[in-house]
Design the sequence.
């Protein structure tokens, strides 16, 4: 138990592209608890062009909800806690808002340092606009023109193992110097050097005279090893520096924050990495944040992190990115009702103009739920392509973002996640209804107790335990038998058929031991099931999702809609489909 | 809760800042009258360079030795054939500029020539008087008149005579409605769903097009038009809102300017401005939701409808879709009272 003497209350503020959220944490009965949230529209854009107004409004709302005064008469956040109990001890700020960051990657070889630089770029809210490598066939002046045309905010300079090529890295440094010399000071890109470490000091000296240079350990210390984490951490700091230039009010907020301001995705990733040390080291943990303008996937296995930020892919303005990347049929295939393509397209494009707009009708909701599935499909597919060592066998999976968190029901959010992510093996899915992941990740370095106690407190909604076998058996054939053993000694046997979504008779909070029997040939399922494995019911209970991976949807539209409706009803009414 | 504001005003004071993204030259002065399409600031952005390796060409032993041979300095303009560097001696060797350009850098035994640049210009986008200059960046322009803001635009700027050709807010624009008498005008119409009609408008050509809405299938073509296109409502079959319709119809044959900018993070919304010779105060750009405000509704089943807030409901309200959200009761123009989430409302004023 935490000593109350040492405990510190925390105000965590997350600034998104649509909403700013303020969260209050404090000790109650010797344990940290999440107490309340306040939400207000973000004000980074017109007419305020200042983050502070949105933060003030969110904290004011939190004040009203919690009953705790948090803002002084002169509109300052009260830090630390005052004698009368008003105020908070710590402030942590995270943000995902801001224009996309223009990134240029420079690496020696296309299939080594360059690919690693690309994966590094994907850890932040940016887009790679140009790639320049040693085997680039363009003349140096043409490379310079390409670099200048990209109007880079950040250059990622990788290249060379720690005992490798130095002259080649020098050529790339020369190009950056040329660019800096042609640009006025404020327009020069910042540089992150994450290559051959023996050159690091010299490169910092040379480039430091022309622009802001950051350095991190080599992302490819040897040809066979990739280590992005230190460079990704440095890149997240550079992202905030860039945001301070772009977003008025951030500097003032950063000056009163108890921890460095972090990009939301990086904060979530830090929590996920921490959790991967607590859970199964083979399976790993997945964190998903589906925002309005961007979606972030953070996967960690035994402390090794893979963070992917999909800029321009989300449920508000990010729908433009979805519509540009996939044909409309990839979205409409998820519709359980017949809606004309034109209506779907118009609705989604209109939503990009009014990202805060909420679906009022069942039709509008169906369109958004279909889009959400495809956002998750696209992001998870791209994550697995970039990190082929990963699979979707994570346990647990945490998911957040306003669309999922404020959904119609936990059951519908669960089905959206199962359809979109298509996890395999045995997993537990948790919903983050208030954006806690980023807050806990931001404060973790300063307060290691708070995140653990919040996780234990039930602040995340346990949606369900789900067993997801993978089989190529014929539809409707029995692929396995499960035996459930309850704590009271009762048992139950179930035949699981290929293509079905089966609710297990497990109540919320109830534990049951599950054994696998008579597995069909070729069945891929968690090996722990053979010896018995305990699962816990979530608010939606527990399920076996034997619908197949990848999920097969009937090509006939009427049959497909019928199937989707059956699955939806199975989740909501807990009857097999 | 903070409310987004969409201006549809018969008379208001309008002040807009127009800034270059990089340092350049401001071409106007305080007090100067400008029209929307006047260029008020410009910068030269280098697009192509040529790197001359003098040291390699002339066989210099070191960068320092080579630089003694370079006869040009940063900023010098050179023509094709001009001497860049010369190594004296019995057999003098010369490096000449292969094309004309400007010397951007002399360093390390090399000379970087800027051989192509593109002017980057910003237009006033608002007709009026320059009231403030931001050195090397741009200016603030002020005017009084009617202002109608839209939902989406294709980024172009223009001005001309306004000719509304719609007989009702939801009339579909057809090719037959676009005849040569409209050539060079700023046309206002209802809904467009046919690519051929957009192409016909481009072929006339028009100076600008204001529509209530278009099919989203036409988005790419609309973006590519070389005259401004403003959508007042957005995508899908949605009638032009009544307030804008009345104002546009009553402004037939007036001189108007169109700025079809659409960049929400920068606060840029597409705007139709009808300058008027009358002073007016400026309208508030930010308000909080409260009763008696005129609002427009986004999202079905009341999309595009205008009304007045009667009552802001406490707490969260369950919507027909099953979602729970902060909501208000809104009296529509037909007197029906409907419940709408605050997130789907824009204050009109």
Sequence:
């Amino acid at each position: 138990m935490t000593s109350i003497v040492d405990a510190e209350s925390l105000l965590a503020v997350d600034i998104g592209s649509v909403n700013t959220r303020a969260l209050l944490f404090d000790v109650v009965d010797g344990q940290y608890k999440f107490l309340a949230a306040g939400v207000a529209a973000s004000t980074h854009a017109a007419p305020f062009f200042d983050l502070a107004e949105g933060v003030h409004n969110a904290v004011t709302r939190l004040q009203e909800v919690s009953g705790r005064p948090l803002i002084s008469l002169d509109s300052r956040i009260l830090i630390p806690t005052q004698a009368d109990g008003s105020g908070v001890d710590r402030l942590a700020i995270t943000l995902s808002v801001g224009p996309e960051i223009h990134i240029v990657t420079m690496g020696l070889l296309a299939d080594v340092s360059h690919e690693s630089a690309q994966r590094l770029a994907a850890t932040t809210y940016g887009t790679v606009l140009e790639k320049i490598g040693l085997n680039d066939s363009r003349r140096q002046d043409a490379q310079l023109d390409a670099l200048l045309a990209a109007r880079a905010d950040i250059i990622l300079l990788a290249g060379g193992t720690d005992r490798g090529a130095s002259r080649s890295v020098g050529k790339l440094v020369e190009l950056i110097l040329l660019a800096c010399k042609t640009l006025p000071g404020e327009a020069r890109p910042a540089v992150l050097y994450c290559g051959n470490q023996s050159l690091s000091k010299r490169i910092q000296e040379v480039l430091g005279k022309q622009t802001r240079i950051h350095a991190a350990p080599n992302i490819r210390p040897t040809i066979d090893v990739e280590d992005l984490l230190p460079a990704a951490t440095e890149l997240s700091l550079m992202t905030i520096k860039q945001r301070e230039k772009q977003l008025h009010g951030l500097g003032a907020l950063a000056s009163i924050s108890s921890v460095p301001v972090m990009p939301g995705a990086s904060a979530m990733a830090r929590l996920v990495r921490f959790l991967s040390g607590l859970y199964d080291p083979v399976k790993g943990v997945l964190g998903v944040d589906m925002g309005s303008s961007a979606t972030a996937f953070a996967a960690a296995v035994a402390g090794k992190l893979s963070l992917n930020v999909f800029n321009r892919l989300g449920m508000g303005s990010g729908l433009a990115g979805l519509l540009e990347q996939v044909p409309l049929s990839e979205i409409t295939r998820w519709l359980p009702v017949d809606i004309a393509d034109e209506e779907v397209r118009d609705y989604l494009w209109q939503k990009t103009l009014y990202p805060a707009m909420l679906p009022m009708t069942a039709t509008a909701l169906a369109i958004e739920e279909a889009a959400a599935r495809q956002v998750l499909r696209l992001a998870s597919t791209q994550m697995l392509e970039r990190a082929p060592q990963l699979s979707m066998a994570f346990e647990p999976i945490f998911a957040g973002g306003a669309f999922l968190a404020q959904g119609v029901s936990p059951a519908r959010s669960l089905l959206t996640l199962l359809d979109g992510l298509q996890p395999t093996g045995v997993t537990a899915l948790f919903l983050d209804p208030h954006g806690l992941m980023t807050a806990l990740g931001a404060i973790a370095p300063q307060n290691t107790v708070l995140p653990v106690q919040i996780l234990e407190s039930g602040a995340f909604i346990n949606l369900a335990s789900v067993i997801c076998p993978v089989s190529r058996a014929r539809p409707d054939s029995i692929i396995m038998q499960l035996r459930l053993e309850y704590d009271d000694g009762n048992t139950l046997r179930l035949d699981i058929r290929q293509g079905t979504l089966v609710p297990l008779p497990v109540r919320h909070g109830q534990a049951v031991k599950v054994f696998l029997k008579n597995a069909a040939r070729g069945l891929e399922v968690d090996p722990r099931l053979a010896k018995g494995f305990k699962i816990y019911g979530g608010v939606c209970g527990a399920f076996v999702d034997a619908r197949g991976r990848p999920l097969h949807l009937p090509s006939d539209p009427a049959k497909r809609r019928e199937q989707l409706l059956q699955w939806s009803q199975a989740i909501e009414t807990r009857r097999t489909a | 809760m903070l409310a987004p504001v969409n201006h549809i005003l018969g008379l208001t004071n309008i002040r807009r800042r127009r800034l270059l993204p990089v340092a350049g030259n401001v071409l106007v002065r305080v007090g100067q009258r400008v029209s929307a399409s006047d260029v008020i600031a410009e910068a030269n952005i280098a697009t192509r360079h040529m790197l001359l390796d003098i040291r390699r060409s002339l066989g210099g032993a070191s960068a320092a030795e080579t630089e003694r041979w370079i006869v040009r300095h940063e900023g010098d303009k050179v023509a094709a054939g001009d001497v860049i560097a010369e190594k004296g001696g019995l057999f003098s060797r010369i490096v000449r500029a292969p094309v004309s350009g400007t010397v951007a850098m002399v360093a390390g035994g090399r000379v970087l020539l800027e051989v192509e640049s593109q002017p980057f210009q910003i237009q006033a986008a608002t007709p009026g008087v320059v009231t403030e200059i931001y050195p090397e960046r741009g200016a603030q322009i002020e005017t009084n008149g009617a202002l109608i803001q839209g939902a989406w635009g294709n980024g172009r700027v223009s001005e001309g005579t306004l000719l509304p050709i719609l007989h009702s807010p939801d009339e579909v624009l057809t090719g037959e409605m676009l005849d040569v008498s409209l050539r060079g005008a700023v046309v206002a119409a209802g809904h467009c769903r046919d690519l051929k009609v957009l192409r016909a408008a481009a072929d006339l050509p028009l100076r600008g097009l204001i529509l209530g809405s278009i099919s989203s299938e036409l988005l790419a073509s609309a973006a590519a038009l070389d005259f401004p296109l403003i959508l007042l409502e957005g995508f899908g079959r949605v009638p032009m809102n009544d307030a804008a319709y009345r104002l546009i119809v009553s402004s037939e044959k007036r001189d108007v300017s169109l700025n079809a900018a659409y960049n929400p993070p920068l606060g840029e919304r597409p705007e139709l401005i009808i300058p008027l010779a009358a002073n007016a105060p400026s309208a508030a750009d930010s308000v909080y939701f409260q009763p008696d405000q005129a609002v427009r509704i986004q999202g079905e089943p009341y999309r595009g409808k205008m009304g007045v807030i009667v009552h802001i409901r406490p707490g969260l309200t369950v919507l027909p879709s099953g979602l729970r959200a902060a909501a208000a009761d809104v009296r529509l123009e037909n007197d029906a009272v409907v419940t709408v989430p605050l997130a789907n409302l824009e204050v009109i004023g």
About this structure: The first strand of chain B starts at residue 2 and ends at 3. The mean pLDDT of chain B is 94. The CA atoms of residues 126 and 278 of chain B lie 16 Å apart. The domain at 44-118 of chain B is CATH 2.40.50 (OB fold (Dihydrolipoamide Acetyltransferase, E2P)).
